């Protein structure tokens, strides 16, 4: 059974809300160069740690946007191929992958977590509110909007928006979706929430943006995807996503930072193809 983080709650909710789901990384020397004794980065193969069933991020089929991004990184850094260590997003993910030197990079990790060393952020996104574009919620941009007062809203248990919904007195009618989901055998909760909304079980849903954008597009329905950037108080809704490396790998981090800087336009294009709601540092939407 995986964390709800198998669906980015692991990557953007559990970690950010302070749930210490993973063991601390081993301490390594900080002054080694790339490929030197203390920096065990493979110079020929991009060794990636990833969840085998976590669309739209990663998947053994190679269809996730992090899988596509890994290929870009491999090419740009002169590595001939990409090799995966697959491990579900559960307790011990970092310890059993990056921390055990079985791989050299986690392709998507929220900025500020202490378990890994973050690169510079390569995208910024937020939790979003989803509802039918032509329905009676048209124009709603915040969880405090009175149009939501009598609506049934779907939210994943324990994620940051649930605190804001509680403050807005929306949890009494909310439908709570489980945090712990094994997406190898059951659908993503984002996909289930959208199906429930289209069938009238719920009126709206609050979902982590990259998942919402991907599954909304997959549904083919006309849905409004509204980044929750106007919330006042409560939990923050926007997060920067980085690549994660070992604390020892300083030169590797610099190499990846240079890749991000030089390829940001191509990275944005890839993310937008998957429907990821991209925000700049001023909360303006990035559309190209």
UniProtKB/TrEMBL annotation:
NCBIfam families reported for this sequence: ABC_peri_MoxJ_2 (TIGR03871)
Keyword check for ATP-binding: no
Keywords: Signal
Cellular component GO terms, alphabetical: periplasmic space
Annotated transmembrane regions: none
Record-linked InterPro entries: Quinoprotein_dehydrogenase, Solute-binding_3/MltF_N
Official protein name in the record: Methanol oxidase
Domain of life: Bacteria
Residue ranges of every copy of the Solute-binding protein family 3/N-terminal domain listed in the record: 45-278
